Amino acid sequence: MTSISVFFPCYNDAKTIAKLIATARKQLKKITRKWEIIVIDDGSTDDSRKVLTKLSKKNKDLKVVFHPKNRGYGGVLQTGFKTSKNDLVFYTDGDGQYDVGELPILFHLMSADISFVNGIKMSRQDYSYRVIIGNLYAFTMRWMFLLKVHDVDCDFRLIRKSIVKQVHLTCNSGAVCVELVKKAQLAGAKFRHVGVHHYERGHGHSQFFRLDRIVHTAAELVVLWINIMLSKKWNAKNT
Q: Which of 3, 87, 88, 112 shows the greatest Cβ crowding within 10 Å of its Cβ?
């Protein structure tokens, strides 16, 4: 029987995280008898810690990891993948912009020859400027890193643990999504894509569109490109 680990990055998501956990549990019951649900709170300053502490006391299948201070999105994914123990690992954001009810779709697409199912936002529900920037970013990343996924920034993914074990993540910013996909690709992952719904943010706001976050992400992407793409070309020339 295939076992599944589900984890949610959480940063100031007190108003949405409980519903995501409940929905995940409902969907997991449909597809497996062995699962775990994990939430990584990345130094939230709202009531997330209080909500998660209360939920963890009531639900034996829920693990909660609290970062003492904010480590960034990459730091959360690193913790999430290390904490996940099962055959398949699914993650999506704790803000509720994706529908966890669509998890079974990804599960049924995970055939024996596939190791990484990546969502594609069918219609991004954000401000127009963010949609434009997001599409440009996705195109640029595909071109720069020769990625095999269309929507590298769609954080609705199901991955085999065997692939996760081969991927060492170093980025702490949003650049971690590119790093994850590219390193999985280099580890031999076979990809499948599927359209998923994307919804307006009901509470809070994005942490990415701040100058300091954008600069940090850009810097990590440059370092990542040099370390992966240039070293790959150098090794190819000298083998």
A: 88
